[in-house]
Amino acid sequence: MNFREQLLAELSKRNTDYIASVIDQDKKLFKEIFELILTNEEYVSGRAAWVVETVWLKYPEMIDPYINDIIDFLPKSKYDNQKRHFLKVLSTRSLTELDEVRLGILIDRCFTWLEDPVYPTAVKMFSMQIIYNYVEIEPSLALELIAIIENQFDDSTPGFKNRGEKLLKKLYRFVN
Q1: Could you give the CA distance from residue 87 to residue 79 in angstroms, rounded to a whole number?
Q2: How far apart (Å, rounded) are the C-alpha atoms in residues 113 and 155?
Q3: Which of 40, 52, 167, 172 measures 20 to 30 Å from 26, CA to CA?
Q4: Rounded to an integer, what distance in angstroms lies between the CA atom of residue 13 and that of residue 104?
Q5: Model confidence over 40-76: pLDDT tens digits?
Q6: Which residues does 123 contact at the CB level (< 8 Å), separation at least 6?
């Protein structure tokens, strides 16, 4: 299958699910679709990220060899949908398996995306979750995350408020 052509044929869940079903557990095909993300090509890259997320939801182990590539790519990603799909994957993972440099890059980017009003709610929510996951390792960042969430709370979307409220309840235990 020519993944690039198929991705451009239609932006839909149906097409995404179809491509993901073709890939299934085939590591070679998974690598092929993953490499399309790294092209940073409009439409193709973000749609490929959606396919990767779809495969990951069914076969979480398929993403394991690409975690470092994802973190290395995130600062270069041009499109919010790439960030959203990759941050969703990273928000569910243990951060203890990451090397210090990549962990620093990831946390720094997440703070940037969380604080900048131009980023969509989903990018902010997954960034918030990743930073919270790191606070469990490094509690000294709890106050900073609390301040950022509280600062944006009044002007934020319902999705941001929902995630923010849940995380604030957990964060307050680090500072009391």
Answers
A1: 13
A2: 16
A3: 40
A4: 34
A5: 999 999 999 999 999 999 999 999 999 999 999 999 9
A6: 80, 83, 84, 87, 113
